[in-house]
Write a structure and sequence with these properties.
mainly alpha, 0% strand, MetI-like fold
Length: 281
């Protein structure tokens, strides 16, 4: 069914292939990268890509201002983006799903408390909140994952809560409750499987947003710190050379664009596949 549905949309196979390539780069970076991403060679600084005049075959995508190989840094940058994307989504989904389940199932004051906390968090712009927290906790991979994970639980909590409110009054839930099942068993055994499709779709689309968020923080100097290769940091490194050495910023920016686009296409495909109302659209 998945293969047949993917054939109807020609963009899906290309997006899936691009996303798989990024994942392979993240997993196999030490084997795929031709050089150490932090190795500097000032005699080869700002070399253009090999297909451009002045380029060298040894540096396929050119070098940056410190003579570091762009291809190697882009390959290693995929690792940071994927780690942050998947780890932060795991934190978001875990926190948001638990709060959404409890809020929707129990209702009352607990529901009101969680929703007011969500409203307060939504009132603060994400980037402002992230910058403030990173300034207090300090930059670094662990703190980036923590900030992005904690700040993004609201969308999960609201969607899961709304679905739980509809599911908890179904007859099979009432029958399970009448048989003496505990609230925890009802939530995790009978309600959670029915909201898992929404959870999967939200998680897929959130990965794209988190990749951009991580790149934004790294661009501002609040994400993963140099010399670790990150796509956002590479874009920032090349902003002073954009008029003369376009590849330093453009190539990592293109990597961000293609990765986010691929994740969004795959996420839209999963949404259409898992939602019965959209299968014939």
């Amino acid at each position: 069914m998945i293969v047949r549905a993917a054939r109807r949309k020609w963009t899906v196979p290309f997006a899936a292939a691009a996303l798989l390539a990024v994942l392979l780069c993240a997993l196999l970076a030490p084997r795929l990268a031709p050089r150490d991403p932090d190795e500097q060679d000032l005699t080869a600084r700002l070399l253009p890509p090999s297909w451009q005049a002045g380029g060298m075959p040894d540096y396929l995508l050119g070098t940056d201002a410190l003579g570091r190989d762009m291809l190697s840094r882009i390959v290693y940058g995929a690792r940071i983006s994927m780690i942050v994307g998947f780890a932060a989504v795991t934190v978001q989904a875990g926190v948001g799903c638990m709060l959404g389940l409890a809020s929707g199932y129990y209702g009352g004051r607990l529901d009101a408390l969680f929703m007011r906390i969500a409203d307060i968090q939504l009132a603060v712009p994400f980037l402002v909140l992230a910058i403030a927290v990173m300034a207090v906790l300090g930059a670094g991979l662990r703190n980036v994952i923590l900030v992005l994970g904690i700040s993004g639980w609201v969308i999960y909590g609201r969607v899961i809560r709304s679905e739980v409110l509809a599911i908890r009054v179904n007859e099979y839930v009432e029958a399970t409750r009448a048989l003496g099942s505990s609230s925890a068993r009802i939530m995790f055994r009978h309600i959670l499987p029915n909201v898992s499709s929404s959870l999967l779709v939200i998680s897929t689309l959130e990965i794209a947003r988190l990749i951009i968020a991580e790149a934004s923080l790294s661009y501002l100097g609040l994400g993963v710190q140099p010399p670790t290769a990150t796509w956002g940091g590479m874009v920032a490194d090349g902003r002073n050379w954009i008029m003369t050495s376009w590849w330093v910023s453009t190539l990592p920016g293109a990597a961000i664009f293609l990765t986010v686009l691929s994740v969004n296409v795959v996420g839209d495909f999963l949404r259409d596949l898992l939602d019965p109302r959209l299968r014939d659209v």
